[in-house]
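INFO  loader      accepted 1 record
INFO  loader      residues=262
INFO  predictor   begin
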Amino acid sequence: MTSGRWLGFLLICCLVLWGAGAMHSAYAAPQEDDEVAAPANPAAPASSESKPASKNLLVWTYEALGIRYTIVFLAMSFTFVALLVMNILAARRSAICPVSLVTAFEGHLDQQQFQEAYELAKNDESFLGQVLAAGLSKVSVGYPQAIEAMQEVGEDENMKLEHRLSYIALIGTLAPMVGLFGTVDGMIQSFSEIAQGGQPKAVDLARGISTALFTTLIGLALAIPAILAYNILKNRLARLVLEVGIMSEGLMSRFDTGRAKK
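INFO  predictor   done
INFO  writer      dumping tokens
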């Protein structure tokens, strides 16, 4: 399954789980209300010194986010980590412009072993290997045709790298949008408590405000490293792709008969 289909499948799963979380919250809310509405024991004396138990930060974060936002942010986090690892592996020099391939390919050309050089480049899965194999396959037709074939393969391979990398930028764009959605959702919850009339409880107001702030915080915490990683990897890939173009043309320049005559 390609990266695009896999990401689309993951987003569909997030939407399904979001709906399941909404149904869970809808059924759980009446139970909580019933528990709150239960009459207190009049015989039990009210203790003015009793303090609410302190909550762990992780528990507080989960309660503020709820099951829906928790699932969405976890899915986006796992997706970001997986895409980051994939793009880091793809941006290695050994995967784009391996030095060993250049040395071996140039050695075959020096010894006039063109078939061996073609097989070496064709069996190599690196960016440079695919470009050199395309050039050698057309060199018998002419040097301009070989350069054109190399450019076409280079553009195709470069597009694959950019598409895979663009999903990191997509997460960097969607994460703060989901956080903003949670901000609006949390503020609506808080204002709905005020709109019901009467004296709203501080706990009910704080619940909506916590949702608004935590969703914004986590959305930004996902977006900042995603945008940073995208720009760093994009610059590295651009530099390596340029190096592939210079090196491949340098290796294939010996087949330029017009240049050799000059």
